[in-house]
Structure formats: structure tokens, C-alpha cells
Write a structure and sequence with these properties.
- By secondary structure, the protein is an alpha+beta fold.
- The chain has one domain: 60s Ribosomal Protein L30, Chain: A.
- Helix content is 18%, strand content 30%.
- It is built from three helices and seven strands.
- It has helices spanning 51-69, 91-94, 98-108, and strands at residues 4-14, 26-36, 78-85, 118-122, 128-135, 146-151, 160-168.
- Strands 1, 2, 3, 4, 5, 6 and 7 form a seven-stranded mixed β-sheet that branches.
- α1 crosses α3 (98-108).
């Protein structure tokens, strides 16, 4: 149903953001998979059951991204997901990615505690998507609040979906806004 047209991977390594250069750069990566939208141009009442069809794609993307980043699951500290929907689709078609994208990363990274932040929008070909990031085990860790911008220049076509995953090895470089620190996580509820 969701025929894969292409995959795009982006890697970003940040050594400083105006402050002192660090020996421990933050590595962030994103992966986008462009697939056909079987619902384009029509209204379908029940979409939820089709999330299961996308689970293998989520697992494949999560593994490909981790491999491309050249790190291990234990190195990942934050994540996010999102979807772009072509003009003949609706935002709800992007919501199909909630379970397959989120749980694929959570399983790969060791059954993390925190919800995977998400965004989605109907957009023209070449649009960007700012994927929200937060800590994998405690959403309230401020230093890990960030975004990662992804784009596929020739997608989504009107009858396509672009499913996205993002992972990061650390907080914002030079984060200094206080709050709960990663080494203070209790790991009970995915919040603190």
C-alpha cells in the first residue's frame, strides 16, 4: 500500500554554537522515507488498522539512521518524528506514523520511557519540516529540547507521504537553561 520511492538521510555534527569548541560534539541525524499515499484524493473513515502495515518501514528506518550516524543505541539521548503529507492527502494521513515511527525507535533504543515528540503537516513539494526533539527517558529535560529540520526537495508529490525520524546523541551544545538534568532522571513515568 505504501510504496517506497526514496530515502534521504541527513547527518549534523555540532562542535559549538557561539561558545567554546567542545571535544564532544552533538551528533544529530534524520531520515525521510517518501512513500505513496493510498488515501490521496479520498476520505477513508478507518485508518488506524493501517499503522501495522507501516511498522516494518519504521523499524527499517530507525536501524538505517542509527547505522548512518555510526553510533550505538546507548549513545542516543533524544528523538523525534514527523510526517509531510502531499496536497491530495490530509493531516490525518501523517498521523499514521505515530505508532510505527515512535515504537520503532523506542524498541531499537531499549524500550525508552518518554513519548516521542511529533509533528505533521500538509505541504507542497520541497517543504521543510521542523522535527521536535526531547530526551528519550524524561520529557522534562530542558537541555534536550530542540528541533531538526528535514527536507526532501522533490517530495511530497500530491499523492505522497514523507515519514521522518530524528535521533541525537546529546543536548543542545552549550545548554544552560537549568531544570532537570539528564543525570537526574528518575525514569519512572517518562516525564522526570
Amino acid at each position: 500500500m505504501f510504496k517506497l520511492r526514496k530515502t534521504v538521510i541527513s547527518i549534523d555534527k555540532t562542535y559549538h554554537d557561539g561558545g567554546q569548541v567542545t571535544d564532544n560534539p552533538c551528533l544529530r541525524g534524520g531520515i525521510c522515507s517518501v512513500v505513496s499515499n493510498p488515501y490521496a484524493g479520498k476520505y477513508v473513515e478507518n485508518l488506524e488498522q493501517d499503522m501495522d502495515i507501516l511498522k516494518p518501514l519504521g523499524q527499517k528506518m530507525a536501524k538505517e539512521l542509527l547505522d548512518a550516524m555510526g553510533c550505538k543505541a546507548k549513545d542516543i539521548e533524544s528523538y523525534g518524528k514527523g510526517a509531510l503529507v502531499g496536497a491530495h492527502g490530509e493531516q490525518e494521513h501523517g498521523a499514521l506514523w505515530h505508532v510505527p515511527g515512535g515504537y520503532a525507535m523506542r524498541q531499537l533504543l531499549g524500550d525508552t520511557k518518554a513519548i516521542v515528540p511529533s509533528t505533521k503537516k500538509v505541504a507542497a513539494m520541497g517543504s521543510t519540516l521542523d522535527i521536535p526533539l526531547s530526551h528519550i527517558n524524561a520529557t522534562y529535560v530542558r537541555g534536550h529540547f530542540s528541533t531538526y529540520t528535514l527536507q526532501v526537495p522533490d517530495a511530497p508529490k500530491d499523492d505522497e507521504l514523507v515519514f521522518c525520524l530524528v535521533m541525537s546523541t546529546g543536548p543542545r551544545i552549550h545548554n544552560r537553561m537549568g531544570g532537570l538534568a539528564a543525570n537526574e532522571i528518575q525514569g519512572k513515568d517518562g516525564l522526570r
